[in-house]
Amino acid sequence: MSTPILEIKGLHKSFGNLHVLKGIDFTVEPGERIAIIGGSGSGKSTFLRCMNFMEALSDGEIWLDGQRIGVERNGKVHYPEKQLCSVRERLGMVFQQFNLFPHMTVLQNVMEGLVTVKGLPKAEAQAIAIRELEKVGLSEKHDAWPGHLSGGQQQRVAIARALSMEPEILLFDEPTSSLDPELVGEVLRVIKQLAVEGRTMLLVTHELGFAYHFATKVIFLADGLFHEVGTPDEVLKAPQKAKTQDFLRRFGEFSF
Ligand code: ADP
Ligand code: MG
Hints:
By secondary structure, the protein is of the alpha/beta class. The protein has a domain at 6-99 and 170-252: P-loop containing nucleotide triphosphate hydrolases (Rossmann fold, 3-Layer(aba) Sandwich), CATH 3.40.50. The protein has nine helices and twelve strands. It has helices spanning 44-51, 81-90, 106-116, 122-135, 151-164, 181-196, 208-214, 232-237, 242-250; strands spanning 6-15, 18-28, 33-37, 59-64, 67-68, 71-73, 76-78, 91-94, 169-173, 200-204, 217-222, 225-230. Helix 3 packs across helix 4 (122-135). It is globular. The protein starts with 5 loop residues before the first strand and ends in a 6-residue tail after the last helix. The site of adenosine-5'-diphosphate has 11 residues, from strand 2 and helix 1.
C-alpha cells in the first residue's frame, strides 16, 4: 500500500466546554475522493479547518506524506507558522462563502497567493491564473470584480484560486450550499472534472446524489466521531446504523 498523503491520529477539538471532535483517526490515500456528511453543527467544518490548521487542535496528530506537522519541544508540540503556511498550500480549501477579495479583480484574486505565498514573479503568476480560470470556464471574466459575478461564478473563481497553488488535497466545505439551485450544477461540473483528473479531494456536502457518484468513500460524522464509514453504496444506500438511517431519511428521496 502507498504511503497515505494525510494521516490524522486521535484528533480532538473543543471550544471551551463544547467537545466537537472526540478522537478521530483518518487516513487519505492518493486519489481518494471522500464525501463527509452529517447534521448541521456536527463538526464537519471544524474537521476541515483543523486539518489545515485554521483551528488549533486540542489534541492529536496530523501527518502529511509521512511527516508529522509540528515540532516537539520540552514535551509540547509547537506549530511554527512557516510550517503551517506550507500545510495550507498543500491542502487547498474552498469555502461555502467563496471568500474572494472584493477589492481585487478575478485575475488578481487567483494570482494573489502565487505572488505573496509562493513568491512567483507576476508574469508567471498571471500565466497560471489565466490557465486555471480557463479550466473553470471563466476566461471572459479576468477583469470583473467578484461582486459583479453570480455565486456560481464566484465559487468557480475560488476553485481556480485553490487549484493555482497546486495543492495535494482539495478540501471543499459545502461549496454549493450558498448558491441558488440553478447555479449548483456549474460548480458540481467543475468538481466532477477534478475527479476525472484523479485529484485527491474531501468534500463536505448535502448534495447526496452528487456525493454518491463523486465519492470513493463516504463518512457520516455524528457525536464527534466517524459514525459510519464505507463506500457510497454502503453508507448512502444501505446504512447499517440507526443514526445514519435517520439522517438520510430526513433528506427524503434523493436522485442518484
Ligand atoms: P458543521 O460544519 O458540521 O455545521 P461546525 O464545525 O461549524 O459544524 O461546528 C461544530 C460545533 O462547534 C457547533 O456547535 C458550532 O457552534 C461550534 N463552533 C464552531 N466554531 C466555533 C468557534 N470558533 N467557537 C465556538 N464554537 C464553535
Ligand atoms: Mg459547516
